[in-house]
Amino acid sequence: MEASPDAVLAVLKVGLVDPRTPVIRADDPGLTRGDGCFEGCRVIDGRVDKLDAHLDRMTRSAAALELPFDRDEWRALVELAVAAWPHPGEAAMKLLLTRGPAGFAWITPLPSEYARLRRDGLRVITLDRGTTADAFADAPWLLGGAKTLSYAVNMAAAREAARRGADDVLFVSADGVVLEAPTGTVVWSVGRILRTPATGPSGILGSTTQRRLYERAAAAGWTVEEVAARVDDLHEADVTWIVSSVRGPIDVIELDGKQRPRRPDVDAEIRRLAGF
Ligand code: PLP
Question: Which of 6, 128, 209, 254 would disulfide-bridge 243, Cβ 3.0–4.6 Å?
Fold first, then answer.
């Protein structure tokens, strides 16, 4: 292993390996069919931020996929990987489990564009996800709320945003209800109220970042709500953020081409409450 690696790879049932080691077989359904689940976590100064929440969600995702998941084994794998990451400050960690089965923890530096996005805010476009807001009700085979490896649509949406000169996407249901971003959750403020779309029948992923933000914001005197909203509600909000574990909350500075005034006071409070 290099003295100061820019990636760390810890493989389930194997341990630390050179980060260039191939770990997926060609016949792994996780690779051939996106049949598996993952987590994206923030490493900060040698520890994993809200690790329990990530292990909880991966337990739920694996259960939805009917994949075995040994929480203690995964916690040990995470500890092994993080102990081998030599850099202070922030990094990104992926936990990935396939039907193969293959499982690994993979730590890398933060994507280079995060500093700019955090500083400058996000230009966001809305895109139709093509299903109604209750499409996932009573349909467990749609895997609503599970963080599966099938993210090709999410990545295509992100490329569509880039093509249109935007930084991120907000999916909207076919019946006009605000859902989520391809890799993040939307939260907005109106006065001292924070709002986010409800999970459940919409199939959107429950966010660990939003949950922590809500706990801390409620303790700090904010009213926190889960609602069904339309894009117009976001145009009328004081501040809208896309939140996720590694990127943190980033305020939306433009929505569908319409500029949004920035509110550095509110923004700073929300970022701080979310742990950023
Ligand atoms: N929604 C989707 C589709 C995501 O991929 C993510 C990121 O993991 C989130 C929401 C936000 O979740 P979290 O805050 O737990 O990272």
Answer: 209
User: Ligand 1: which atom is nearest the Cα of residue 39?
Assistant: 8
How many angstroms separate the alpha carbon of residue 3 from the centre of ligand 1?
33
From the CB of 189, is ligand 1 less than 6 Å away? no
pLDDT one-digit tens code per residue, 45-84: 999 999 999 999 999 999 999 999 999 999 999 999 999 9
199 Cβ closer than 6 Å to some ligand 1 atom:
no
pTM, whole model, 2 decimals? 0.97
Beta strand 8-11 with 15-17: parallel, antiparallel or unpaired?
A: antiparallel
Closest CA relative to residue 77, chosen from 3, 16, 23: 16
**C-alpha angle 186-189-195 in degrees, rounded to nearest 5:** 55
Could you give the maximum distance between any two Cα atoms of the chain, in Å?
Answer: 54
